[in-house]
Amino acid sequence: MAEHDKWDIKKLIILRTLRERGTVTATAQALLLTPSAVSQQLTNLAKQLGVPLLEAQGRRVRLTGAAHLVLRHAEAVFEQLERADAELAAYTNGEVGEVGEVRVGAFSTAVPALVVPVVRALRVARPGVRVQVREAEAGEAYELLGAGEVDLALSLAARAVPDAGDGRFTRVPLLADPLDVALPVDHVLAGAAEVRLADLAGESWIFGGSGAWSDITRGACEAAGFAPRQGHSAAGWTAILAMVGAGMGVALVPRMALAVAGRGDGVVTRALDADRPRRHVVAAVRRGGEGAPAVASVLDALRAEARALTARRPG
Q: How deeply is 221 buried, as exposed, middle or buried, from its count of CB atoms within 10 A (0-12, 13-18, 19+)?
């Protein structure tokens, strides 16, 4: 075996997937393999590299220090391969302009508010770029991106500068979406000149049980000095606003979602100027893939639409 032949890309992808998914079974499901095939490939990789990659931890396995060292170097290889794909696409398409398909995974409100306008704009400005859209909530979008099932993911973050801990991705902040509070029309604060989150500390809150939106709601309330008491759990804005309209509780609602879904009957929304909580919309690509001409065109169009959307909305 030649010295560099032991660095088997396919087996390294399996090892990286095991690090992300945590178990051999989940890794097998993600890569459409059998658990025995995953174990066999990793055993072979350990023999090729001459170091132990896995160690038993009860009924599960965990990566060894050597495995983490291998993956640290492998990430640079994966990034360089993404760059190679991007440059090859640029070379191949150089004489005919930007062409190619970009698969976009985006959370529900981003599809009508950001992605659909981008598709329309690209039909005119870059007719060779085709966008395939897949609705996927925040956490799932990164899983699809890491698995190579989408080329660009739109997700949410609680902070303006998203966490860069996962070295597989390059993240591009797009916009800061103000959060308004949705109240029943007969709420005591519905007509107040100013509403602060702290004024709503004793209310029953409506938000999802887990995920990015739950984290954003909890984080905004905790920054205002209280932990929100969750009265009901819902993920869709139509359901959340219907519950608010029925007097079942209050909710934070992104302005982008209100523009798409509308307020519904029996609901008033109030800006929280004193607290000014926001959620941040972030685009992500696999590190090194941002140079592909078609992906770069979609990113540029997303930035332009995000600027336009921010300019249209107050706050």
A: buried
